[in-house]
Amino acid sequence: MDGNKLYIKGPQRMHGELLVQGSKNAALPILAATVLGKGIFIIHHCPRISDVKHMLELLEDAGCRIHWEGHMLIVDTRELCNYRVSCGGAGKMRSTVTLLGSILGRMHQVEIPYPGGCTIGKRPIDLHLKGLEQLGAVFEHQEHTLYGSAQMLHGAQVYLDFPSVGATENVLLAAVLAEGTTVLHGAAMEPEIVELASFLRKMGADITGDGNPVITVKGVSKLHAAEYIIPSDRIVAGTYLFGAVMTRGEVRLLHVPISHLGHLPELLEQMGAVVEAEEDWIHVRMERQCRPIPYMVTAPFPGFPTDLQSALVAALSTASGTSFIEEKIFEARFQIVEELQKMGASVVSEDSFALMDGNAKLHGARVEAKELRGGAALIMAALAAEGETCISGMEYVCRGYEDINSDLKKLGIVV
Ligand code: UD1
């Protein structure tokens, strides 16, 4: 890697074994949750990615003390005193929004800058606010910041119009210390929700039903510190599995909770891979040209994850026929298409649809990562392409991939 650029000479076959890093989307809400209890938390297998670093800056801003030992993170929340988090990190990433629920829960008021995140379409927070308001919070929209307060948070029947991951997390975070019982209807069922609920239970919360559309939270008066192991990242795992498919490779990924992958193993088989998997590992071997997938739609878990859509677009551009993808979660999430075209792919997109003609002989090009997951997918495409590809915008990839260079090396790639 040279600055924010990565150079890859292809084609190269992915082969090898890798212990997959901790999950970004599990770690971030869990870190937000630490503020709900006073004490010293120990979080294992925490990914050292820029989004986590920004979240930790915010926790420090609120008065927490942070210490790393390898991938073990120690968060001391005993001195938390500031309900305003404003330092450089906020506004850069979307998941700061989960601090709304947790800081409100602990301090009864909160002020955060409007959340940022990847440039993948409009990302409103109306569902978060509506859910929190039903628990008794009141919000004031200021020019650059959002201020929330609640004299007392109380349990309620909360209905989400869409199973938003972040809104589900925020309601859980605010409900655990609320007075009375909250029943959240239409909750997201992503594995990260189950991880957050498991962590909160370790802190003393009373939560049932997570992983289902109805979650019940009985408020408790106090939460305590806890120790937790962050699971491996299902999206990072999926990215490399598509990399193996595209490069006719063979990879074994370890410490991956297979239940977190949903139907991905079956999809890889449909694409022509030989897949073996047990509870916490997966082995994928590809010996042929990828088969097309006539239609795939992104959907909330256990549907196909929007975060792997770009990697699927990249893989299917090399398939032996035409494939069609519909993006139903985010708008403007086909930014990879233009970049893949520069590499010789016959891909077009319009609105929420992308069509891959397949049979692309990808070639090296200068391409730009415009967001986190699309950037990682371009790296997978570069492995399959003939010649050198220069991928700029690697700072987006660093938001979620701790050390993609080192992962690629372990997977047999010369970078
Ligand atoms: C989380 C993940 C992200 C993933 C996404 C969908 C984290 C840190 N990020 O993002 O990687 O792509 O889930 O699986 O966990 N929406 C509204 N109003 C709201 C909230 C959401 O309209 O108040 C819409 C969004 O614009 C989007 C859809 O709902 O179209 C899904 O968003 P949501 O599930 O909330 O995603 P995030 O929690 O932001």
Question: Describe it for me?
Answer:
Strands 2-14-16-15 form a 4-stranded mixed β-sheet, covered by helices on one side. A 4-stranded mixed β-sheet has the order 4-5-3-13, covered by helices on one side. Helix 5 links the parallel strand 9 (157-159) and strand 10 (181-185). The model has no long low-confidence stretch (mean pLDDT 95). The protein contains 13 helices and 22 strands. The protein has helices at residues 24-33, 50-61, 98-107, 126-134, 165-175, 191-202, 234-246, 264-270, 309-316, 336-342, 372-384, 394-397, 404-410; strands at 6-10, 15-19, 40-44, 65-69, 72-76, 109-113, 138-141, 145-149, 157-159, 181-185, 206-208, 214-218, 227-229, 250-254, 274-278, 281-285, 296-297, 323-326, 347-350, 353-356, 366-368, 387-392. The N and C termini lie close together (8 Å). The protein is of the alpha+beta class and 415 residues long. Bound molecules: uridine-diphosphate-N-acetylglucosamine (UD1). Residues 25, 28, 94-95, 122-128, 162, 164-167, 188, 192, 305-307, 329-330 line the site of uridine-diphosphate-N-acetylglucosamine. Uridine-diphosphate-N-acetylglucosamine is lined by residues 25, 28, 94-95, 122-128, 162, 164-167, 188, 192, 305-307, 329-330.
